[in-house]
Amino acid sequence: MTDTLVGLCGIGLLVVSIFSGIHIVLALGLIGTLGIVALAGLRAAFSVLSTTYFDFTHSYHFSCIPMFVLMGGFALAADLGKDAFETARRWIGRWKGGLAIGTIASCAAFGAATGTSVGTAALFARLALPEMLKHGYDKAIASASVAIAGTLAMMIPPSALMVVYAILTGQSIGALLIAGVIPGFTYALILSITTFIWVWINPQIAPVVEEKFTLKEKLYSLRLTGPLILCIVAIIGGLYAGIFTPTEAGAAGALMTFILAIIKKKGIKGLNLTYALLETVKTSTMVFLIITSAIVFSKFMSLSGVVTLLGSTIIAWELNRWLVWGIVIILYLLLGMILDAPSMLAVSLPITLPIMTNLGFNPVWFGVCVVLLAEIGLITPPVGVNCFVVAGAAKGMVHLNDVFRGVLPYVLAGIVMLILLTLFPDLALWLPRTMGLE
Fold first, then answer.
1. What pTM, to 2 d.p., does this model score?
2. Which residues, 6 or more positions from 115, have their beta carbon under 8 angstroms from its beta carbon?
3. Residue ranges of domains in the chain
4. Does residue 415 have a pLDDT over 90?
5. Cβ atoms 190, 196 nearer than 8 A
């Protein structure tokens, strides 16, 4: 059996394992290890395992992941999301679809201080969803707007998924984080426009809210969002100016949100510090295991020569690079239906990234596009993790079918954003280029 055939068998086994329900960590790690044994022997496999797990878990640069996760936990404890939604509700709640648009805007701001998609979706399912339903919003638009808004945390820094992509591909973590700024806020704008158009076409799904606020009340709400804005400016501005490394930015953000949480809860006792720390350890450990297993599988793919074969086949067939990009998009949309975001990156990048870079696509731009595709996958049936989170956190107010019934316009909005990134790659590359990172 040739090395390439061993590699193809490994890919086949991985696909079977995913559909069989085997955990992605076990599937990637075990298949990658057995593949290396088959190609290079047992000693080589042990060498790869020892160096991969040691080098990764002892790298200072990767410590930004637990810092970002911890920052998200403290931001939740500090009620920063609640303050952001209250501000948006007072200022734009009376617009057509204003509460849904306000949910998207506040999720974008909250995501810029936490980087946690599932946590954001769960929080706003408890904050925004009851408010929209109380004012007569249709369950589909109310729940779907929360589900898609929660995904914005994956692109706007600090984004743990951007860090995962950077680690798996060997790219600059700082460049990836900054590259998501303009696309992230542009995507939030597109989602808001989509909501407005949806309500304009079908006004009864989002009645105009009668509740009014005085200018004094609106201005006071801005004081609530001051700490959140401070966190956003400190993290993004510090990264862009080169004041912080990604790890230092995560640490500074965690410290700021920790202080805010203590102030809001009037002491450390109300913070539930043990829970925040344990959740950080559990989440970070799972991400680390997925990444290290993916690196082992990636080394197996490199040894087998499968990626080289695929690249040479594409060159031999003289396929148009944009056709290949279209095929890759379809692949990621399909993967997003059955895998969570970190697992999707872990499974696909060892194969797709070399092909895309060989065709002349920028790896940083590709990273932003892949994260966007992961965002779309978070609301796409049958998995649609954020849809399940919203339905679960709603506690009977809406059902899963209601969420899935409303996601189609937002999936289309994601495709529009992807087209914009394809036509105008500088949306992702301009800021890193001004920093000299790209």
1. 0.83
2. 68, 69, 71, 72, 153, 154, 156, 157, 158, 159, 160
3. 1-58+291-304, 62-271+306-434
4. yes
5. no
